[in-house]
């Protein structure tokens, strides 16, 4: 009988782990028909597998490996920006950045990265005219180091938000953000595991007008602390030891590999809390207005480096033997939550081991989350509370080649139900 109970306990532990991994909107792990879990949806499409893949909830083995960090300084003297729909995950094809939305409002002009936000062609889900901004993300993943940017913001109108952040799909994030109507101020913030809170935010003087002149901002991200610099001066230090949550028994501190994001988005046209935080309603009285943020250079210095020679082989997935059609999703692309494979992690065992030992993966895609204005619909702001918000992950009517399959939903639910039924029957047999 003791042996039977041990067997039962082992089986229950195993099956519970299988059903606990779910792609949120499908209530199940994604199947081979739409293998990539992104923002709770099961998708197909190479750009999802290469960049946005939530490894814990996607079809096993489907997520592409994460290209690891290589130190570099980009002065934007050449075109090293690729549209996300054309990016196959290979970091060695000559591009340092990927533009995440379609239509693409990011461009390299006169030695600067220019992120534009014109008025969108349609109103957002709140019935407001909304800007359609841009987000550019690094093609390689960083885990600790320094990231510096020289920025001229778009804070000439309330509601317009410029962002320079480090973010991963698990919901860890480190922020510099400039909200509309406060050009002399920069907000710093950090998030852990998608838990958005106002208590981690702190604002500081830029020492000038951030919208009319360039200023330099830097993150120093270490295992035990984060330092925020403005014009080479430390304005804030966050210590990991101070983020301990005794109830959850975890340090609520960004510790997992992430991508660098540069963005502009419309925070003034969504739910009231976000609008208030962003400085008020965005001025769209002239529908031809285009708000612009400028990045003069970005410097990334990896703590764990030496990945230049790691070869890239684009993974090939077996084609499903049956159902292959799926309906188009309106979600757009942001960063990935893939796991490193041996091929990409071998060049930096320290990084790989550090990543493996960091906090457990969340199922939420978060940050950079928002909606029709590229801004605010999925912020945790539905209670209309005021506070700093994560950068949005998708724009209103933008579409990529990501897809989601109703077949996956129904098949996965049927499989989950059958699995649990089998566990129940076997439990009854063992106990008898």
TrEMBL record:
Pfam family, one: Glyco_hydro_16
SUPFAM superfamilies noted in UniProt: Concanavalin A-like lectins/glucanases
GO MF annotation list: carbohydrate binding; hydrolase activity, hydrolyzing O-glycosyl compounds
Record's protein name: Concanavalin A-like lectin/glucanase
Organism, scientific name: Basidiobolus meristosporus CBS 931.73
Keywords (A to Z) from UniProt: Glycosidase, Hydrolase, Lectin, Signal
Bias type Basic and acidic residues, positions: 394-407
PROSITE patterns (alphabetical): GH16_2 (PS51762)
Biased composition (Low complexity): 321-388
UniProt record, GO biological process: carbohydrate metabolic process
Domain GH16, residue spans: 57-300
Region annotation (Disordered) ranges: 313-410
Signal peptide as annotated in the record: 1-21
């Amino acid at each position: 009988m003791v042996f039977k109970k041990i067997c039962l306990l082992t089986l229950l532990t195993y099956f519970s782990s299988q059903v606990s991994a779910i792609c949120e909107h499908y209530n199940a792990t994604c199947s081979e028909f739409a293998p990539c879990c992104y923002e709770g949806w099961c998708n197909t499409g190479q750009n999802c597998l290469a960049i946005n893949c939530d490894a814990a909830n996607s079809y096993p083995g489907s997520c592409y490996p994460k290209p690891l960090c290589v130190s570099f300084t980009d002065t934007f003297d050449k075109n090293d920006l690729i549209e996300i729909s054309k990016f196959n995950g290979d970091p060695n094809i000559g591009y340092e950045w990927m533009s995440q939305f379609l239509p693409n409002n990011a461009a390299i002009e006169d030695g600067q990265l220019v992120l534009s936000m014109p008025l969108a062609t349609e109103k957002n889900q709140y019935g407001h005219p909304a800007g359609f901004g841009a987000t550019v993300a690094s093609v390689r993943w960083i885990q600790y180091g320094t990231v510096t940017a020289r920025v001229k913001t778009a804070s000439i109108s309330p509601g317009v938000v410029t962002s320079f952040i480090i973010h991963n799909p698990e919901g860890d994030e480190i922020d510099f953000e400039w909200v509309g109507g406060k050009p002399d101020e920069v907000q710093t913030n950090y998030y852990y595991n998608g838990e958005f809170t106002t208590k981690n935010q702190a604002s500081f003087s830029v020492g000038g007008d951030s919208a009319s002149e360039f200023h330099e901002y830097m993150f120093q991200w270490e295992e035990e602390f984060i330092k925020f610099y403005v014009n080479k001066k430390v304005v804030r230090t966050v210590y990991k030891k101070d983020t301990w949550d005794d109830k959850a028994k975890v340090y609520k501190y960004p510790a997992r590999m992430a991508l660098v994001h540069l963005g502009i988005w419309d925070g003034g046209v969504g739910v009231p809390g976000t609008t208030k935080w962003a400085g008020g309603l965005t001025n769209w009285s002239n529908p031809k207005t285009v708000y612009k943020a400028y990045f003069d250079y970005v410097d990334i210095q990896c703590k764990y480096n030496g990945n230049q020679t790691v070869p890239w082989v684009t993974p090939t997935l077996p084609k499903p033997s049956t159902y292959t059609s799926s309906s188009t999703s309106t979600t757009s692309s942001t960063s990935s939550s893939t796991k490193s494979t041996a091929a990409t992690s071998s060049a930096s065992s320290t990084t790989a081991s550090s990543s493996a030992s960091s906090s457990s993966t969340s199922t939420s895609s978060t940050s950079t989350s928002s909606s029709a204005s590229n801004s605010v619909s999925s912020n945790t702001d539905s209670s209309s509370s005021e506070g700093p918000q994560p950068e949005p992950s998708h724009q209103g009517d933008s579409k990529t080649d990501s897809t989601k399959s109703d077949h996956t939903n129904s098949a996965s639910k049927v499989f989950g139900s059958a699995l649990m039924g089998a566990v129940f029957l076997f439990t009854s047999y063992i106990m008898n």
